Amino acid sequence: MPRLAAQLNHMFATVPRPSGRELWTNEDAAAAMTEAGVAISAVYLSQLRTGKRDNPSARHLAAIARLFAVPVEYFFDAGNSRPIPQIASTTAAIPPRMVKIVVQVSWAPFGTASNMGKSRFLAPLGMTNPIQE
Known about the structure:
Blueprint lengths: L3 H11 L11 H10 L6 H9 L7 H10 L16 H9 L3 H12 L7 H8 L11
């Protein structure tokens, strides 16, 4: 995976933590993934980010994708002209109250049927379901 280090460094530099204020560190990311059930160390993340290691297991890659709210395919598609994490970092700059209003209006007609789409969009903002919040 020749682009993995650059992709990881881009996400770590642009995608905020769920609080929306701070970026992920290797330590915080490792702790979050381990807490979610996928044991990974900060040292291993550092090795992936520096290119020392470039072949993570499918389980580790999936955990990283979940953490940054991107599909696993993101790491394999060389044709990505606009990285998905860039979208997440852009939405993180929007005040949370405005995001709630936009999401309420946009998703209200769909009820709970679109919760999977909502969670992927809202995860970087630290929200789950603003319609109920």
